[in-house]
Write a structure and sequence with these properties.
The protein is an alpha/beta fold and about 290 residues long. The protein has one domain: Rossmann fold (3-Layer(aba) Sandwich), CATH 3.40.50. The protein is about 35% helix and about 20% strand. The protein contains ten helices and ten strands. The strands form two sheets. The chain has an eight-stranded mixed β-sheet with strand order 5-4-1-6-7-9-8-10, sandwiched between helices. It has a two-stranded antiparallel sheet with strand order 2-3. β6, α8 and β7 form a beta-alpha-beta unit.
Length: about 290
Amino acid sequence: MNYRHAYHAGNHADVLKHMVLLALIDALQRKDTPFFVLDTHAGRGRYDLEALEAGKTGEALAGIDRLRRWAKNERTIAPVLKRYLEAVRPALSDARPRYYPGSPLLVAQALREGDRLAACELQPDEAAALAALFARDRQVGTHLRDGYGAMKALLPPPEKRGLVLIDPPYEAQGAEFDTVLDAVREALQRWPQGIFALWYPIKQRRTLMPFLRRIPHLPIKNAWLAELLVRPDDSPLRMNGSGMLVLNPPWQVERDIAAALPQLSKALGEPGASHRLEWIKQEIAA
C-alpha cells in the first residue's frame, strides 16, 4: 500500500469526516457509561501541514485553511461545525494552520476517564509515529496491524458501547468497497449495537452505485449518509467530494450534521458544489 495521508491531511474530506466523527463521540458522551472506539486506518495521528507532502498538494489550503478564514467572518456557525473548529484550534493558532490532528488524536482528546481507543495502522513508519504520539496515554492502544483483522479480533468490546471508524485509502478503487461492506457485515453480527462510521470518496457518482445498493441489505436498523461535493462529480481524475455513512446512528445526530452541511458547502465549495443527508431504508438482508 503506497497511500500516505500526509498528502491529503486537512482537506475537505478530512473536514467532513472529522466533524461527523466528533458529533458521534459527543453523542456517546451523553451517557455516563464508558465507550470504546476502534480506528481501523488511523495513520500517524498528527500531520505537519508545512511538510513536503502537504506542500505538494496544497489540499489543506482549500480545506481547513479556507474554513478557518470563512469562520472568522461568520456570526452564526452550526454547533457541530463550531465544535470541530474548536477541536482543531491548536492547529489554527498561527497565520496558517501548521499541525493538523488526525482522527485518533481528535478521539483521544475527547475521551473521558474509562473511555478507550484502539488505533490501527498497517504501514510500519506511520504506525511507529502513531505509537510515539500516544506512548504515555494509557487510554489509547496502538496496533501495527490490518484494520479489518482488528475488527474481527477486538469486537465486541467489553464496554459494549462504542464506535468503529473505517477510513481506508481506497487504492483498490471499487474492490475496497466490497472489502469494507463484507467486513462491516461480519462485525455487525458480533456487535449489532455498535455504531459504524465509514468514510468514502466521491469521484463520479455512477461508480458509487454498486456500493450504495448494498447498504440497505446490511443487518442494521437505521443508517444515513452525509455527503459534501466541493465541485460537480464529473471528473474521474480527482476526488470531487466525499461522504460519511453512519450505521446505527445515535438519536438526532443527523439533524446537527444537516444544519452544518450548507455552511461547509458555502465555505469550501467551488461553482457547482452540493451536499446531501439521506436516510437509508433497510431491506431484507441478502
